[in-house]
Structures
1.
Amino acid sequence: MAGRQGKLLVVTGVTRGLGRALIEQCSQTDELKTCRLFGCGRNEDRVRELNEKYGPRYEFTALSTCDFDAVMRWAEGVVKECGGRGPHLLINNAGLTNETAPLWEVSREEFQRVVDTNIHGYYNVIKVLKTHTHTHTQTHTHR
């Protein structure tokens, strides 16, 4: 992972689960400590905790990836903060699962939240951030 200095990483779904674990690991990996990392998650309290814990190299924002306009504003802020550069690596991790139950027992509202986050939210992030990547930069999108 040498050569990561100055790289821009974007991670969605940072407030819990795999996204939170990724942030912890990045902060402890020497090669990634020099990266500029931007993350987002829905839980405002957890986002505040992350900002307090990691300081200025890592910047976290509370938002729902289902909200296209919020994702657009966030992405524009990330790009502006980084001098017009888009991310080198996007880990589009935000996602939800329904309570463990047969599909026919899952409420329509719960199922809609899962679809909105896992499909629309995923699309919103890629749609917005992919337009800001440089053609000379190899950008990987992981899900």
Note: The beta strands are 8-12, 36-41, 58-62, 89-91, 140-142.
2.
Amino acid sequence: MCIQVYVHQVEGLMCLLSSLLPGWHRYLSLYWHQMRQLPSTNPSAHEALVGGCFSVARSTNSFAKVAVDQCIEQTINRHSKSHGGLIGFSRDPGAVHRWVMTAHERAAVAGACHDLVEDEDCDPTAMPHKDSTHSRMARDEKDREKLMSRLAEFSHPFLGNDLLSLSTGKVCSAEVTQDVLSSHSKGTAAMTQFIASRLQSQAVDFFAPITRLNLKTFAGRKPSAKKSSRTAAITADRSLFGRLLVMAQSRSFDLKLLFEHELGSVPWSLANADGSPVKTPKSKLLLALEKKVEPLESLPPGAAVIVDAMALLQCYSSAPPTFGSLSEQVFTQLLAYMPSTPPARVDFVADQYYVASIKSSERSKRSSSTEPLRVSVQRADQPTPSQWKRFMANGENKTDLIKFFADHWSSTPALLDKLGLGRALFLTVGEQCYVFKAEEGKTVLSRNNVSRFVYIHRHASMD
């Protein structure tokens, strides 16, 4: 059964190499094909492999077998290449041939003589295995602890349905996920075609170049540059006037009457030339509201401070090394915004990200120049991505980050102790509002239709 399992494992490795590294499986395919034909081409060798003749034991110690070719190097070839061997023996081809044909006999005689004169106290077979010594066992135990500690830092691959990197937590795109999951089947088809055309029928030369499948992997590709709305508008206008020029040569129509209508596939008052909705300048509304109020020098007692979560996180040019340190830094920053005189509260409000929304098209338009980076936030010691702006360009990352803040703050009593009596921190996560108080720990208030807007949240979260 060992030989069947071995050949099956080689076949699985060859399928992966066919899909990802096609040049590497050329000779491996020949080796695998020869191993499949071994029962008919060399029955004795096949029976020996079935019997377990994969390795040679040169001592009585457990787990001390070596490979067959390694054993030949350590015995026959060692005697042949040592003092008194083939080197400097003769240049006569006939003498060299006779010497090579009898090399194994001389090696056997030399080995038997070595066993006769060897001291029993120096017998390597009587010595314990080097992996069984106390120093080696202590070192292996330390290595095992380091390995387990490192694996515990990796992201859990089975918490969600996304394909992600174990070390960084980065989530693959849909195209990369499809290519990675189908790499084995596509590699199997390519391997079958290679063996049929180059080994069995020999219709194609064995050394002919191998066509790559060009499957996308975790490395990914750089996003292609997209046209801006202004470039699309100029292109649309140029095409329109070109059609009008052709029509004017064969028809008679009034251009003044023609330009009274919207000559486009979409109404220009509602959409751009590329089909995206026209952006509403909401910032002008904020400037108009600021003109009607006067800034306060200090917050009055009982005042509530409302902080836009995404505006605060977007201010970071680079995040702290881990998500846990980022959570603690944001919590400390929110406490600094809180009024010193109780009762005081801070509302940390985050947006909700719906795919079927006008805002979603605007966010995708903003991130068109750089491809968003999807990372699954799972633990406090998980490293933050170095490309912070790309991370914040993904709506799912923002949702996961706010959920992580809520879980991390509620599970860290040292942070809640910093609030003090009479002070509260409100945090919105989707359609729920979390209340953090020092005397009560964490209180979850489930509210339906909690708005993502700052103004409405101020009234919806009041008790």
Note: Confidence is low (pLDDT under 50) at residues 440-463.
3.
Amino acid sequence: GGEDKWRERPFASLSCCFVVPPLRFAEDACRVMEVCVRGGMPVLLLAAGQAGATSPASLAGAVVQECAECLAALAYTNLIVPGHPAIFGPWPFVSDLRTG
């Protein structure tokens, strides 16, 4: 093993819910993401707003917000280590405003 082998072929990734919708980064999650990126671990950038609650009620609006949040995280990741492996993970949910 060793760190050089890990960086060549990492066998784990970080699933990071980095955002507090709408459009605000969670500081603690960003600090974890920074450590993982600097350590060579690929990251899954999850943005999971709830349509009608923390993102627009329309599906199109919710998808646009999730994509904007993931693009912001992708830019942040590339500011830490340019070209670092990241998975774009918008994940909009739907809330029934009558029942929660």
Note: The chain has a mean pLDDT of 89.
